[in-house]
Amino acid sequence: MQELQQLALNIEKLAQFRAILKDMKKGYEILTGGYNTVKDLTEGNFSLHETFLDALLQVSPTVRNYRKVGSIIEMQISIVERYNHARSRFSTSGLFTAGELSYLGQVYERLMGESLRNIEELTMVLTSGQARMSDDERLETIDRIFDDMEDKLLFLNDFNSKGAILGLQRAKEKHDADAIRLLNGIKQ
User: Fold this and answer.
1) What pLDDT score does 31 carry?
2) Which secondary structure element, helix H or strand E, spans residue 162, and what is its range?
3) How far apart are alpha carbons 66 and 75 in whole angstroms?
4) 69 and 126 in contact (C-beta within 8 Å)?
């Protein structure tokens, strides 16, 4: 009889253990489901952010076809042409000292270096996969490069004009001095 009571107790304990295990399994399934839901949400959110960030690497046609892009390139070509012409004119005129020509060369080299950096930055902004920027940020950068190139071109024009005026003044002084020597019969 005692064995029967023990067996009944064991069956009752087994039923309780089954209920406990069933509750534990249910809790585990709820926990796992919640974890997977949170995981899926965060991965989906990350995927959304990744999609957004990848889109920032792409250059839209609006940016690529922005009218100031062509103007920046034209200004760079103009800077190079005006630089080469003025440098050649000043160095072959015989009106400037070696020190002055060296100074002119330094100014031109610095100007060329800065304008080439602008072109490199423009290339980076216009190349997909190079910079994470919105269209507005890209357009603002292009506007800034445009303004800087415009300033460089204006500076170069002014610098070349002042150099040309100095050269003309020196040529006139040399001509006047030669004319006075000729009138006075003085040989050089």
Assistant:
1) 60
2) helix 135-184
3) 15
4) yes
Residue 167's contacts (CB-CB under 8 Å, 6 or more residues apart) are 89, 90, 93, 95, 96
The per-residue pLDDT for range 75-102, each reduced to its tens digit, is 998 998 998 899 899 999 998 999 999 9
pLDDT band at 144 (very low <50, low <70, confident <90, very high): very high
The closest alpha carbon to 143, from 121, 162, 161, 169, belongs to 121
Q: Helix (H, G, I), strand (E, B), or coil: what is residue 177?
A: helix
Tokens of 130: 């190079």
The confidence band for 44, taking pLDDT boundaries of 50, 70 and 90, is low
pLDDT of residue 146: 96
Is the distance from CB of 68 to CB of 141 less than 8 angstroms? no
- CA-angle at 32, arms to 29 and 37, nearest 5°: 120
Please name the residue that has the structure tokens 């060296």: 102
Residues 105 and 73: beta-carbon distance below 8 Å = no
Distance between CA atoms of 164 and 142, rounded to whole angstroms? 32
pLDDT digits (tens, 9 = 90+) for 16-27: 767 666 766 666
C-alpha closest to that of 75 among 155, 139, 1, 16: 155
147's tokens:
């303004």
Residue type, 109: E
